[in-house]
Amino acid sequence: MPPLSLSPLRFSPEEITGVVGLYASNPEYCRAAGEYDPERIPADRVEADLREEAETEGCEVLLARDVQDRIVGLLCLLDRHPTDGRPWIGLLLVHGSLHRTGVGRLLAGLVEERFRREGRDGIRLAVLENTPVSLAFWSSLGWQEIDRRTDRRHGRPCIVMHKDLT
User: Fold this and answer.
1) Closest by alpha carbon to 99, among 77, 72, 126, 130?
2) Which end of the chain is more exposed for a tag (fewer CB within 10 A), N or C?
3) Considering only CA atoms, which of 34, 28, 30, 33 is closest in space to residue 19?
């Protein structure tokens, strides 16, 4: 797997177009999440949603790019969750054409290593209950289910997962 780079989303028109393409390449996720119709993803709404995320204290919205500078993924990271004080992955989305190629595994590893270097002992995320493929992916990386509850923003049933970083 060639190296990937992570950089903050700058909200240029080209980047927003690339992010819309990421969502469009993942129609199953779009349907499960219920935020965007995979047939008509409004760029202005995606941009507004990601700006809101990026402006939230302790949140980062990052683009993953390959060696040809193509956008291959999107990550939303939270430095400290308001409930448990731990870092969370709010979203890790890989271009649909790259599923099962190791890109998601590599991105998850980069995030884990980053928080490990910062001295964090664990990290969390929430998987939508109606996305068994996502649950299988995270479980295969050693993440463990620790709770079931609805997400804070949309009230969707989720499985909270944790991974020790020590």
Assistant:
1) 72
2) C
3) 30
Contact 159, 135 (CB under 8 A): yes
Do 159 and 127 touch, CB atoms closer than 8 A?
yes
pLDDT at 2: 64
Q: Three-class SS string for the chain?
A: CCCCEEEECCCCHHHHHHHHHHHHCCHHHHHHHCCCECCECCHHHHHHHHHHHHHCCCEEEEEEECCCCCEEEEEEEECCCCCCCCCEEEEEEECHHHCCCCHHHHHHHHHHHHHHHCCCCEEEEEEECCCHHHHHHHHHCCCEEEEEEECCCCCCEEEEEEEECC
Measured distance CA(24)–CA(7) in Å, rounded = 21
pLDDT for 1 equals 59
Supply the angle between the helices 13-24 and 43-55 in degrees, to the nearest 10: 100
What residue type is assigned to position 132 of the chain? P
Read off the pLDDT of residues 15-71 as tens digits, 9 standing for 90 and up. 999 999 999 999 999 999 999 999 999 999 999 999 999 999 999 999 999 999 999
* C-alpha span between 89 and 62 (Å, rounded): 11
Positive or negative: CA dihedral 31, 78, 129, 96: positive
